[in-house]
Amino acid sequence: MLQDTVLRLDEIESLDPIVVCNEEHRFLVTDHFDQISRTPQTIILEPTGRNTAPALTLAAIHSAEMDSESIILSLHADHIVKDIVAFRKAISLGVPLAEDGGIVTFGIEPSEPNIGLGYIRKDLDHKNYFSFLEFVEKPSLEQATSMMNSGEYLWNSGIFMLRSSLWIEQIGFHSPKILNACTDAMAKGAKDGTFFRPSKKQFESAPNDAIDYAVMEKVAGNVTDGPDCWVIPLDAGWSDVGAWSTFWIEGEHDASGNVTAGNVHTESVNDSLILSNHRAVAAVGIKNAIIVETKDAVLVTSMESEQAVKDLVSNLDEEFGMLKKHHQVVSRPWGTYEITDFGPGFQVKHLYVKAGESLSLQKHSYRAEHWVVVSGEATVTHEQEVFTLKENESTFIPLGSKHRLQNKASEPLEIIEIQSGSYLGEDDIVRFEDKYNRMKPQG
């Protein structure tokens, strides 16, 4: 979906995109850009999540430093847009409004009383766009039904366009703590190739707030001393994949109204979403359910309760808390690794090393490693020795030994790595050489 978001901009006059993401997703993001042969202008790495208002503020500060008159288009990477031509037409319509100093958002005609979305109350009709008077965030079902029936409201798509300088001005006026924290974080941050790391200490002092709450609700309808605020209707097959029900709505339904994917078997199941990524999932006698199976977790909820999933995740106790921090498949600049098994004193990883890439020259203080080549050809450095391993060949890296794994071939390299030791954390690493400038213990 990140790739789709970037590709939507192909015929819109714009600079290379600025991406704001979590530090842990940095290599996943670069992989996605590589796959579509695109280059981000900068990837700003949030040390911790602080919601959309601080994220946009980081991007606006960076954009304004390059061009004080720049116009920013804020896009989420979890939107579906089916009609790209209509999307581009709406964006083009908003450019002159933003150039004239306005705040432009894009609204969707409601098709149901959705309580998971925000609503925009529109005012004067300017043929292709409206001024807007009010933002209403995630109303009750009764409110949502009333607003939809009135014809005065549009869903808030979460897409915004305005000058970077105007956002900085408005966030500074309405939420100065966010601006101060982000300004200090950028000033004390560090550039690392395409990546920019804001200062963690400064950024963590930013309040956790969304664009809508921090600014948009406060400027809506303020025609006296605020900027002009415009909403452009967007009829482009838009959906926000902020909820699992969106996959059910957008998916291909069977005769019982179910959307399924993977190894799924159903009996007397109706109007449900069931997704299996690895294991077989069997369901009997249920309706309006959501079941999502991955290697490390299974989610089961009703359609009616899906909005409570965020609360569930935030309340996970220590036993399940690791699920929020670590995924089984982890992206690195050289490829990916997947944890396939673990227990006291051991861990098994499945490594995929891209053609021409290399892990760092490194050592570990608490673990030894066994490598087995599944496919491809590995170039191994072990202390002063350099040698080649082919399919079904293996080697042992003792605790404390300096070592490196390289793929000098034109095909991907697949390795099974068995780790053993008293501590198996990713921070047990000392790097001596690294082509990706990761000389600190970041994995």
UniProtKB/TrEMBL annotation:
Q: Looking at the keywords, is Transferase present?
A: yes
Q: Which UniProt keywords apply?
A: GTP-binding, Nucleotide-binding, Nucleotidyltransferase, Transferase
GO BP annotations listed? GDP-mannose biosynthetic process; polysaccharide biosynthetic process
Domain MannoseP isomerase/GMP-like beta-helix span(s) in chain numbering = 271-316
User: So what does this thing catalyse?
Assistant: alpha-D-mannose 1-phosphate + GTP + H(+) = GDP-alpha-D-mannose + diphosphate
Which Pfam families is this protein grouped with? ManC_GMP_beta-helix (PF22640), MannoseP_isomer (PF01050), NTP_transferase (PF00483)
Enzyme Commission designation: 2.7.7.13
Residues crossing the lipid bilayer are none
Which N-terminal stretch is annotated as signal sequence?
Answer: none
Q: Which Gene3D superfamilies does the annotation name? A: Jelly Rolls, Spore Coat Polysaccharide Biosynthesis Protein SpsA, Chain A
GO function terms (MF aspect) = GTP binding; mannose-1-phosphate guanylyltransferase (GTP) activity
Nucleotidyl transferase domain segment(s): 1-251
Domain Mannose-6-phosphate isomerase type II C-terminal, first and last residues per copy: 324-434
Judged by the first EC level, this protein's enzyme class is transferase
Family indicated by similarity: Belongs to the mannose-6-phosphate isomerase type 2 family.
User: Which PANTHER family does the record associate with it?
Assistant: MANNOSE-1-PHOSPHATE GUANYLYLTRANSFERASE
Q: What is this protein's record name? A: mannose-1-phosphate guanylyltransferase
Where does this protein come from, organism-wise?
Answer: marine metagenome
